[in-house]
Amino acid sequence: MGQILEFTPLLIEGTWMTIKLTVVSAVLALVISFVVGLSRLSSSRSVRVLATIYLEFFRGTSALVQMFFMFYVLPLLGLTLSPFTAGVIACGFNLGSYGSEVVRGAVQSVGKGQHEASTALNYTVYQRYRYVLIPQAVPMMIPPFGNLLIELMKLTAVTSLITIADLTFVAQIIRAQTAMTLEPFLLILVIYFLIASVLVGFTDFVARSIARKRHITLAGVRRS
Amino acid sequence: MANIIEFQNVHKSFGELKVLDDLNLHVEPGEKLALIGPSGSGKTTILRILMTLETLSSGRIIVDGDYLWHEEKGGRLIEASDAHLHKMRNGIGMVFQHFNLFPHLTAVQNIEQPQILVRRTPKIEAREKAMELLGLVGLSDKQNHFPHELSGGQQQRVAIARSLAMDPKIMLFDEVTSALDPELVDEVLNVLRRLAADSDTTMLTVTHEMHFARDFADRVLFFDKGKIVEAGKPEEIFTHPKEERTRNFLSKFITVT
Ligand SMILES: Nc1ncnc2c1ncn2[C@@H]1O[C@H](COP(=O)(O)OP(=O)(O)OP(=O)(O)O)[C@@H](O)[C@H]1O
Ligand SMILES: [Mg+2]
């Protein structure tokens, strides 16, 4: 076990890489969630169809294969992506497809009365979504987004297969260079779990801030 | 004086169901109208069509000199574009049975946001006006409360203030007290009574409160099956209804004398 301490710098770098992958992919996934989720509610049929194709493609195929495709196949077509970019795109596009359903569902669940009130006040369609429907939908999105964030963090492990030195990759190195198998993998399981705990705490924090600001209690939010 | 609202042979059907049947209606500027009648007679539908929340099946509506649901292009009347509807909605406001306040905004924000977004009123002015209107409806001390922290009657008064803040020429009230507990009805109706007495705004209210209709209205319209059965001054309708159907309907409200 003492031997594993020699790999501390490497482990820290791996942890940092996993965090970076998670954060960057999460930002990408969030943007995609809103763009695709709202496009699915568009009044234009072609926009809706495009968004649905995107959703079904990324939800219906393996993230791992998508990542291999981006990393190994796209260069043959003249588009070379760095491993980090390919990893982030695969993870972000994937979770973005799930997230878009969260956005669509939450926005759709805002009552008809809110549409009618904003029409009666003569809001434009943009203003209705921006100032009435989305702000009411966001608190409903937080718990499912929290779950997706953890899914995303776990998914980043696949990037080790395209040479990204994340936690999983580091564990493989340790296993190859020492005779240890149990220790490195046990250790990274613990680290993954700790990262997940931080993400849960972050989600709760966001939910609580919204709840406090609006004087409401949100379902599933832990009391501070 | 020119009419501010004209319904010309308006029909409205939902599938097979005829809701408005060849309706003709003229409203003068500043007039206060009460629409009464049995459930399903089409009263709400009239307001919703005026608010552009519901289309009409045929006929014409003129609001303040302009077609509401049509516009003229190359000498022909065509269906109104979104831009035309947007322009027409500027002069019309509506208060709903279930208030429909924005739950994520405080009372004062509910009243100021539409002014800022739609009227482009500077924030400070919008806030001033919102506070003034909260005072008018007796809720100055509730400015920072969210809708769920207000009683139904208070929420409805905020909704009235929100609608007033847009300075509509025409205000529509659809059974604004029927979702309220009985003890909260009067606080809302009194606000409307005062408004009706003090303002030049044209107002149409659908109501089942006959006392209120009598105080509020210059003219009462009794609807049945999508038609105006009888119309007249409140004294006439409530004390000497001419039509059998009106008498029958009013006899259910025994307290009206
Ligand atoms: N969107 C809709 N789709 C189908 N039918 C509708 C729709 N809106 C209203 N109706 C029907 O149209 C008829 C008239 O409705 P409306 O709401 O105008 O009646 P009302 O006079 O306001 O009745 P109440 O006093 O009960 O509010 C009713 O039979 C109603 O069921
Ligand atoms: Mg009604």
Describe this structure in words.
The complex is a heterodimer of chains A (224) and B (257). In chain A, 35% of the residues are buried. In chain A, 75% of the residues lie in helices and 0% in strands. Chain A has helices spanning 8-39, 45-60, 63-73, 83-108, 112-120, 125-155, 167-177, 182-214. The longest helix of chain A is centred in the last third of the chain and has 33 residues, at 182-214. The radius of gyration of chain A is 21 Å and the shape is flat. Chain A is built from 8 helices and no strands. Chain B has 9 helices and 12 strands. In chain B, helix 3 runs parallel beside helix 5. In chain B, 36% of the residues lie in helices and 26% in strands. The longest helix of chain B is centred in the last third of the chain and has 17 residues, at 182-198. Chain B has a domain at 100-167. Magnesium ion binds next to helix 1 of chain B.
Features:
heterodimer; A: 224 residues; mainly alpha; MetI-like fold; 8 helices; 75% helix; B: 257 residues; alpha/beta; six-stranded mixed β-sheet; four-stranded antiparallel β-sheet; 9 helices; 12 strands; 36% helix; globular; binds adenosine-5'-triphosphate; binds magnesium ion
